[in-house]
Amino acid sequence: MRELTCTAVSAAVRQLCIDANYHLPPDVEARICACRAAEPWPLAQATLATIEENLEIARKGVFPICQDTGMACVFLEVGQEVHFTGGSLTDAVNEGVRQGYADGYLRKSIVDDPLFDRKNTGDNTPAVIHTELVPGDGLKITVAPKGFGSENMCRTRMLKPSDGVEGLRRFVLEAVEQAGPNPCPPLVIGVGVGGNFETVALLAKKAMLRPADAAHPDPRYAALEQELLAAVNALGIGPAGYGGQTTALSLHIASAPTHIAGMPAAVSICCHVARHKEAVL
Amino acid sequence: MIELHTPLTAEKLKDLRAGDRVLLSGTVYTARDAAHKRMLEQLDRGEPLPFDLQDATIYFVGPTPTKPGERFGSGGPTTSGRMDRYSPALLDLGLRAMIGKGKRDDAVKAAVVRNGAVYFGAIGGAAAVIAACVQSCEVIAYPDLGPEAVRRLEIENMELTVILDPVGGDLYETGRAAYLQAAGK
Ligand code: SF4
After folding, report:
1. For labelling alongside B33, which of A247, A281, B141, B143 has CA 20 to 30 A away?
2. A232 forms bridges with which residues in the sheet?
């Protein structure tokens, strides 16, 4: 049994919130550069150049990459040999978010009640926390702040088994088409297929967080990832929706076993500000 | 690049076309959905708005907090579609330009044409670049709304692209179509 203090968890989450909002993951940034180099459309190229310039400025630590510093989505992989001391793990994560969003001068975008009051909680809490028990005595924390311009464009649909690959393809293209310029393309797309209603969205979000060059281990899915990315980019929506080749930077699929009667699917759409940072305690 | 200075009269905007690139300087007011809702409620009650709408420009943005020693935080555009139910009324009362990102509905497009107005796009996510062109920022209404409060910004050479123009052009349709045609798709 290994002991971890809640203070250590808060400190790590605090730092991850700040880092994620000022530094884009290198793989996402590399994709932006590569897509700009390959982009034939002048206005699209200029837009991608501005996006790169923005990352340069943000890196200096004064201005966050985007003003929508997001809802803090926190993934915890908790080793089953770990014992947390000094309070509750949930409180520790929220305390880290509170400190990170205050000290990092990040925007507080959370309202307490979704329907009636919609009053800003003032400290960007509560975070959305996903906890998974894993073997071992470590704790892996991933903080993925997500803006709602793109979150609002995500979709879940209960496809039928007979819809097959073609049904999934149509669903993905329809989601990107309907989103158009709203989620700040170029996009990072995660597709979930399988599981059930509540897990398929999470699958899609996890696929979205995969490194840009990490293909699905099953070659059939890996080929479909390539094909869907090409089909999305053939839509011509382009950076900022002004037209161009670069509608998406990457597209990943995550699959899971499902019921004989169903094929749940989800499309998680993220803007080019695809933020996430990890730490292992 | 076309240089423009606020206030934006219909005369100054009449030759702008979707896809034109503009450098805007002068005064703009920030407002998102919560501020729009309050402004419309004030109008319903016959109360004056926090700023004069005539030939004004509204920027749909909720910035990050300003760091000590800085003039502004990060401040890129938010999704404009959430303001669709409010914008036509404001345009009909004199609002002349909006800055945001994303699609607008048919009622907004019609109100833009009817009033010789323009909807400009700023690049979503380029919030740190945009911060550099803000010279000053002052909260002028609804401070309780935090990032959604109405602010008066003095801006210099803010890079914008015309999305909806006074003759009904829409860059989201024409830009994409032109690219696809050029690409032979
Ligand atoms: S969708 Fe992304 S880039 Fe666009 S405003 Fe939201 S967080 Fe920023």
Report:
1. A247
2. none
Contact A149 B74 (CB under 8 A): no
Asked which of A77-81, A210-214, A217-221 is least confident by mean pLDDT, the reply is A210-214
Residue range(s) defining the domain that contains residue B86: 2-182
Residue nearest to atom 8 of ligand 1 (CA): B125
pLDDT tens by residue, B120-166: 999 999 999 999 999 999 999 999 999 999 999 999 999 999 999 99
The shortest C-alpha distance from A189 to chain B (Å) reads 16
Dihedral sign, Cα of residue A42, residue B99, residue A154, residue A144: positive
B98 within 8 A of B82, measured Cβ to Cβ = no
Pocket test for ligand 1, best of A50, A273, A276 (most atoms within 8 A of CB): A273
Query: Position of tokens 């009269």?
Result: B9
Q: Which of A197, A203, A198, A202 is nearest to A256 (CA)?
A: A203
CA-wise closest residue to B101 among B56, B146, B160: B160
What is the per-residue burial (b if ≥16 Cβ within 10 Å, else e) of A224-252?
bbeebbebbbebbbbbbbbbbbbbbbbbb
Rounded CA-CA distance A137/A158 in Å is 37
Looking up residue B167, the CATH number of its domain turns out to be: 3.20.130.10
Structure tokens at B170: 């829409």
Residue to mutate, A24, A68, A146, A269, ligand 1, most ligand atoms under 8 Å from C-beta? A68
Q: Where are the domains of chain A?
A: 2-20+65-146, 149-275
pLDDT band at B108 (very low <50, low <70, confident <90, very high): very high
Which residues numbered 83-122 in B keep a CB inside 8 Å of some CB on A? 101-103, 121
ipTM of the complex: 0.95
State how many domains chain B has: 1
Question: What was the pLDDT predicted at B184?
Answer: 85
C-beta atoms of B124 and A271 within 8 A: yes
Distance (Å, whole) CA A251 – CA A227: 10
